[in-house]
Design brief:
It is a single chain. The chain is an alpha+beta fold. It has one domain. 0% of the residues are buried.
């Protein structure tokens, strides 16, 4: 997850000093986009049925993954 506090964020302001745009390094922007995508996926799956950890481990062992 991105650490916004460590990002070097620059703002573009209008004549009244109101912030109108943000300037970020491309790397920081891409990290923020990835975080947003992750949060969106979590929100979409919030109501899905969950699987107990022990059941996941059991299935992985049965399939020879672990």
């Amino acid at each position: 997850m991105s650490n916004v506090k460590k990002m070097k964020i620059k703002y573009v302001t209008d004549k009244k000093g109101k912030k109108t745009e943000v300037i970020l390094k491309v790397k920081d922007f891409e990290e923020l986009l990835e975080d947003l995508q992750d949060i969106t996926i979590v929100a979409e799956r919030r109501d899905e049925q969950t699987i107990a950890h022990k059941d996941v481990i059991k299935e992985l062992k049965q399939n020879g993954v672990i």
